[in-house]
Amino acid sequence: MVVVTAVVLAMLSGGFLVPADEPQAEIGELQFVRLKPADPEIRRLIVDGHHRSEAFRALIDEIQRSSVVVIIQFGLCANGRFRSCVTNVDGDGRQRNIRVKINTRTTDDRLIATVAHELRHVVEILGDADATSAERTLALYRRIGEGNCRAGLSEACETRAALDAEQQVLQELNRASRVAR
User: Fold this and answer.
1) Which residues of 65-85 are buried (b: 16+ CB within 10 A; e: fewer)?
2) 2-36 tens-digit pLDDT
C-alpha cells in the first residue's frame, strides 16, 4: 500500500538525501548499492527473500540498475492501519530517494512478501521520471492506482502489480519452504 500523503512525506523529507557516491551496503554475502535496509533484521529478510524467490530477486535487480536509493525500515503506516507504505519520495531526474516502512506483526515469509510489494511500488515510481515529490508521486498513483485513489477520494493508493508481486513472492517462498523440508 502506498500512502503518499503530502503531510507525511513533507515531514520525512528533511535530511533524507543520500549521496550517490555512498559506499555499498553489505547484506550477508550480497552487496547492494541502491537498497539500504535500516537494521540487521531487515537485512536478514532481504537476503532470505533474495535466495528463495526469483520474483524478489528480479525486483532487487531492477532497483539496482536504477539511480534510486531505497531505505527500508520497520515502522507503522497511518498509525498501524496499513501493513506497509512508501513514506517518502524526493530527489530529481538524476537520483531519487524513497523510504519504505514495514509493520513487523507477521511471519518472516509474509514480511518478505510485503517488502516485495513495496519494492514493486518503488519500480512503479522509477517508471515515471516526474515522480520526484509527494505531489508528483500521488499524481502517478491517481493514474495507475485502483479504487478510491484513482477516483481522487483517497491518498492511500494501491496497484494490481504490487498485489500480484506480493502473491507471487509468497507462493515462491512457500514452494522453497516445501522443497527445503
Assistant:
1) ebebbbbbeebbbeeeebbbb
2) 554 333 333 333 333 333 344 444 444 567 789 99
Cβ within 8 Å of residue 24, ≥6 positions away? 31, 32, 33
Long-range contacts of 17-21 (CB under 8 A, 24+ apart): 17/90, 17/91, 17/97, 18/69, 18/71, 18/97, 20/67, 20/69, 20/94, 20/95
Query: How confident is the model over 48-91, as pLDDT tens digits?
Result: 999 999 999 999 999 999 999 999 999 999 988 899 999 999 99
Kindly list the domain boundaries of the chain, sorted by start residue. Answer: 2-173
Strands 156-157, 2-3: pairing kind: antiparallel
